[in-house]
Amino acid sequence: MNDNITVRRVGANEATEYIEALADVLIDCVEGGASVSFMLPISRATAVDFWTRIAHSVARHERTLLVAEDAEGHVLGTVQVVTDQPENQPHRADISKMLVARRARRRGIAQRLMAAADDAARAAGKSVLVLDTVAGGDAERLYERAGWQRVGVVPNYALKPDGTPCSTTFFHKQLG
Known about the structure:
With about 180 residues, the chain is an alpha+beta fold. It is built from 4 helices and 7 strands. The protein has a single domain (about 5-175), classed as Gcn5-related N-acetyltransferase (GNAT) (Aminopeptidase), CATH 3.40.630.30. The protein is about 30% helix and about 30% strand. The radius of gyration is 15 Å and the shape is globular.
């Protein structure tokens, strides 16, 4: 892991300051083939609109936004802990949009983001986490190493950015 990388929670009052940098990471990941809800070509306006909605959700305390930054303050990755859940699931949170810029991969950033997401979920009083990811991708191995349990695979669940169907693996984690 790189000690020059800082992972931190972005506060409700500062989330809007990160929109442009987070849009850069999202665009990079989608252009790199990540199936994270967006199709090619992804416009900057689409990415900015998405992160604007996320910033508003952070301000409403519906989710926690975490970022990984280098020593110069450049955003290299992000993940969200969605804590706003139905009334009968106050103990659960969803992990969403775990993204690391292609230039920053293989440096332990995703692992650090996921550990910070666990901590943020615990701090929010959550004990059950769920997420989904493209089946067969690098993220599956990351989640398994981080103690996530595979629930199952749904064939043809989503599309990759180029329109190719892909299967999705669902995971859960029980926080102790």
